[in-house]
Amino acid sequence: MKFHEMNENEIASALRTDFTEGLEEKEVKRRREQHGYNALAEGEKQSALLLFFSQFKDFMVLVLLAATLISGLLGEMVDAIAIIAIVLVNGILGFFQERKAEKSLDALKELSAPQVHALRDGEWTKIPSKEVVPGDILKFISGDRIGADIRLIESRSLEIEESALTGESVPVQKNTSPLRIPNPGLGDMENMAFMGTMVTRGTGSGVVVATGMKTAMGQIADLLQTAETQETPLQRRLEQLGKILITAALFLTLLVVGIGVLQGHDLYTMFLAGVSLAVAAIPEGLPAIVTVALSLGVQRMIRKNAIVRKLPAVETLGCASVICSDKTGTMTQNKMTVTHLWSGNKTWTVDGVGYSPTGLFFHDDKSVDPQNEKSLQQLLTFGMLCNHAEMIDKDGEYAIDGDPTEGALLVAAMKAGYRRENLLNQFEIVNEFPFDSQRKMMSMIVKDNTGRKFAVVKGAPDVLIGLSDSILWDERQQRLTKDLTSKVQGAIDELAGNALRTIAIAFKPIPQNTVVLHENEAEKDLVFIGLQGMIDPPRPEVKTAVKECRDAGIKTVMITGDHVITAKAIANQLGILTKGSKVLDGKALSEMSVSELEDIVDDVSVFARVSPEHKLKIVKALQNRGHIVAMTGDGVNDAPAIKAADIGVAMGITGTDVAKEASSLVLLDDNFATIKAAIKEGRNIYENIRKFIRYLLASNVGEILVMLFAMIMGLPLPLVPIQILWVNLVTDGLPAMALGLDQPEEDVMKRAPRHPKEGVFARGLGWKVVSRGFLIGLMTLFAFMIVYNRNPDDLVYAQTIAFTTLVMAQLIHVFDCRSEKSIFARNPFENKYLVWAVISSLVMVLGVIYSPVLQPIFHTVPILAVDWLLILGLSAIPTFLLAGTFFARKTKRNMI
Ligand SMILES: Nc1ncnc2c1ncn2[C@@H]1O[C@H](COP(=O)(O)OP(=O)(O)OP(=O)(O)O)[C@@H](O)[C@H]1O
Ligand SMILES: [Ca+2]
């Protein structure tokens, strides 16, 4: 018999499991050995060896190796071996960097791996989906992605969208009864839930019948998932730039070689010089370093509770100009406590701390016994009944399992002495229509001991009042007149005006033999009972975060399903509502077209009483206004807006699988301030990438120019090939990496967001590269000429001076690259990595100059002390000469 044909007992015995206890840990281990992990097979990964060899596949490195071969054949063994050694060192460095980048991206994948709710050893726990074995009991709610193939044993309004499997995008209504049709298709198996499909409504639970490749998904997964590589816009731009630079570098190299040969240098020397120069001038390593910098940035973000799911988001974050954020849980703490209750024109307050179920009730500042207040009793008991939250009491430490709003209602009723167990003895729950943020309410059909049936409804007061035709007033059921309606409205507004989140409770008697099949039948002609108002304090760090965002040119917009007045009160507390900014509600939003919204959207700071569906409209309108939008969300219905936003942000704690999958950033702590931290990090990563692009390109320009100038002037070669290689592949590498780890400049969050289409050389970077590069080349040439003219017989000494000047000029220039302004704008020793990188580059170059073993290889000789003055003087000029112009400009601006 197949699983879908079995009844509950047959399934339990077929899979040797227990519906109330689940599997034992021992048994899980045994089954895992038998069935393996619950994962679909993945494409092959690149081996370490392959990664190592890929470091040498670059075109220029191959040319270099070919050149080495030629020089080896010509008998220049020392040169050949040295070149090979340098290429090897460079390859090993590259290998370790890329390995590190890969590892951190893998760790990221682990972090965002899906989880499921499983019953193990009698307790519900969250486990990685990978660890599920056949026989496990899983439960799921709307927004979950199903983690294995499951035979359902419980379903409440459960609907599952199976398009991933069947292509059918209309959700299927599920049930639990054994299936009697012969050979049903996947789409017909209404008592099964399949791996990879998505719960769109309701809740359910079931037994895992198949895992991994044995699932229906596994069997059609012949197209194995391959890890897709994600290129960021900058990486793409750099690749294009790389092509241009290669052409330019080759052209200049040919020029140098051509002029050199015309000036009478021998062909072989010029060939080697040309090849080395080409290797030096072409920034092939750049895209790789960018990847490394991005992945290191991603790791820093994890430490700040932000998980980047799509690498390009790291860059886009720095461009964000609007953050649209949910209120509840993201800007507030989602720790709700009922403080005010209202029914039939009477208000009570209740005190107490946290979720502890003790507190006193007051009316008109006098303590009252809730058992004497009939309408209060109704309000509290129905609020407890139409409720899924559970109280967890761990040695007097109280916590809530479930929706915090419902938790608050539960605690309020417990303060009055009610217990859910007792209530469930009086009322039997017949059916439920779960909460959704579209209807903004939920209802349960219950039957009491005497057989009377009710619908108990709770939800947004302004919605419920519209569905009621009578009301409990002065402890009597009365017709809801216009007059009474406006009194209720007044009570709602008063609670909301104090930043309280309000929930209304209502009920409706149902004839005994009527079966309510649809929520529309239950949720109309209601008897309005009253209101409960709860505080949800703002997260303390949000106010500062909102301000920091404003300083950074980023607007914060609150989007909430909550009441307009509540939303406004909280937005005011957080500094989101500023002078002239507007509040728009869902109703007005529904009546607007995207283009109408576009006209006013820049002035709106709060969207209240909206449904998730509205979010897409808001994103579109903002994008049409040219904004780069970050949009948060957690539910199934948020997914389209999250996907459409430039940066989709999902909640790590309350977020559904569907929202997370659509997002490019997940907040581990659901905190608004984390978005701000991620944006700051995103801006910093981009600036750091700019820093080392600037450094490496300026170095290259300097190297080419010194050779070119020398050839044009008919001088001997100022640098020998091996020196050029050394500078490029060894001295430059470490400082460039260290720039990638640089601290943000003080004003990163004081500047306007970067334009997303900004080119690599924007904001003066091109000028800085050319001007500094030119000066580096020129000063190296000067150093060479001064020493060479002093003693033309000692070319090797002059070359050593040129080599050292070039290195020193770059090692000084690297500090200038830390700031957009000037080397004087920052403390040069702030970046410890950079200080160590420069020191080690320095030690290495001193080794090359002074070690008798290395001297013959690098064609160097020891430098006289006086010439160090010359070297240091000249090498400081490229950085300090133009830093002076910055000061001149700055003082002038200050004077105006
Ligand atoms: N569990 C619930 N049962 C009944 N009504 C609820 C429940 N949770 C929320 N509501 C009502 O529905 C309204 C909308 O809730 P929704 O979850 O869409 O947004 P929210 O949580 O208030 O705000 P945000 O969009 O900022 O997260 C709430 O203001 C409340 O009145
Ligand atoms: Ca180079």
From TrEMBL:
GO-annotated molecular function: ATP binding; ATP hydrolysis activity; metal ion binding; P-type calcium transporter activity
Gene Ontology annotations for the cellular component aspect, listed alphabetically: plasma membrane
Pfam families: Cation_ATPase, Cation_ATPase_C, Cation_ATPase_N, E1-E2_ATPase
Statement: the UniProt record of this protein carries the keyword Nucleotidyltransferase: no
Keyword Iron-sulfur recorded: no
InterPro entries named among the record's database cross-references: ATPase_P-typ_cation-transptr_C, ATPase_P-typ_cation-transptr_N, ATPase_P-typ_cyto_dom_N, ATPase_P-typ_P_site, ATPase_P-typ_TM_dom_sf, ATPase_P-typ_transduc_dom_A_sf, ATPase_P-type_domA, Cation_transp_ATPase_P-type
EC number: 7.2.2.10
SUPFAM superfamilies referenced in this protein's UniProt entry, alphabetically: Calcium ATPase, transduction domain A, Calcium ATPase, transmembrane domain M, HAD-like, Metal cation-transporting ATPase, ATP-binding domain N
Membrane topology: Multi-pass membrane protein
Biological process per Gene Ontology, one example term: export from cell
Span of domain Cation-transporting P-type ATPase N-terminal: 2-76
Coiled coil: none
Catalytically driven reaction(s): Ca(2+)(in) + ATP + H2O = Ca(2+)(out) + ADP + phosphate + H(+)
Keywords: ATP-binding, Calcium, Calcium transport, Cell membrane, Ion transport, Magnesium, Membrane, Metal-binding, Nucleotide-binding, Phosphoprotein, Translocase, Transmembrane, Transmembrane helix, Transport
Enzyme class: translocase
TM helices/strands, residue ranges: 56-74, 80-96, 244-262, 268-294, 692-713, 719-741, 769-789, 795-812, 833-853, 865-888
Subcellular location(s) per record: Cell membrane
Family: Belongs to the cation transport ATPase (P-type) (TC 3.A.3) family. Type IIA subfamily.
Name of the protein: P-type Ca(2+) transporter
Native species: Mesobacillus selenatarsenatis (strain DSM 18680 / JCM 14380 / FERM P-15431 / SF-1)
